TrEMBL record:
Origin: domain of life: Bacteria
Metallo-beta-lactamase domain segment(s): 23-185
CDD domains named among the record's database cross-references: metallo-hydrolase-like_MBL-fold (cd06262)
Name the record gives this protein: MBL fold metallo-hydrolase
Gene3D superfamilies hit by this protein: Ribonuclease Z/Hydroxyacylglutathione hydrolase-like
InterPro entries the record matches: MBL_Glyoxalase_II (IPR051453), Metallo-B-lactamas (IPR001279), RibonucZ/Hydroxyglut_hydro (IPR036866)
Organism field: Tessaracoccus lacteus
């Protein structure tokens, strides 16, 4: 069986008493025996319900923003895996998860699951450590908050860079046009749908 991609939608709020207004996509890639989890987001139970009795090979983090990582440590403990993230986002991890450990997810790192290689590509700009996960065999890329339908992710923080995220997008746009883009929020798109708009995005500046 080839690897399948599954989306788990979870929601939460930075204020625990507030309504669950932030929706995130958690992505699972795997077969009936093993699975990789990308961005556990808001609800470890919801993710583990979809994992079922499969072995979790790795927990990969696209970037250190709270909504993507808040259940990463809990999920990792429950399945016996240390989450992996680019170390340039360590400062964001510490804000949300304190001294909980993570392992490095370096540019070019490859994780094998269900006969498929998942390759980390450092795509900074939204955050310094933002990383996309390429699944070439599946014709898919998991972009976190780096690329959405209609443009790049926000670069409004001091540690963000619009110029840098545009460079990251130029790299992603060398992928085949039919590559499916699975972002950290909302709907999926394709490289071929988004790439023609890069100049518009540069001109508008966001
Ligand atoms: Fe983000």
């Amino acid at each position: 069986m080839t690897a399948l991609i599954t989306r788990v939608l979870t929601a939460g709020n930075s204020d625990p008493a507030g309504p669950p207004i932030h929706e995130n996509n958690t992505w699972l890639i795997g077969d009936e025996a093993e699975v990789v989890v990308i961005d556990p987001a808001h609800d470890a139970n919801a993710v583990l319900a979809v994992v079922g009795d499969r072995r979790v090979v790795a927990v990969l983090i696209t970037h250190g923003h709270w909504d993507h990582i808040r259940k990463a440590a809990e999920l990792g403990h429950r399945v016996g895996v240390t989450p992996r993230m680019h170390p340039a986002d360590a400062f964001l991890w510490r804000e949300e998860l304190g001294d909980e450990p993570f392992d490095e997810l370096a540019d070019g790192a490859v994780v094998e699951v269900a006969g498929t290689g998942l390759k980390a590509r450092h795509t900074p700009g939204h955050t310094p450590g933002s990383t996309s996960i390429l699944a070439d065999d599946l014709g898919a890329v998991f972009t976190g908050d780096t690329l959405f339908p209609g443009g790049p992710g926000a670069t409004r923080w001091d540690y963000s860079s619009f110029d840098t995220i545009i460079e990251s997008l130029e790299g992603l746009f060398t992928l085949p046009d039919d590559t499916v883009v699975h972002p950290g929020h909302g709907d999926s798109t394709t490289i071929g749908t988004e790439a023609p708009h890069l100049e518009e995005w540069i001109e508008r500046g966001w």
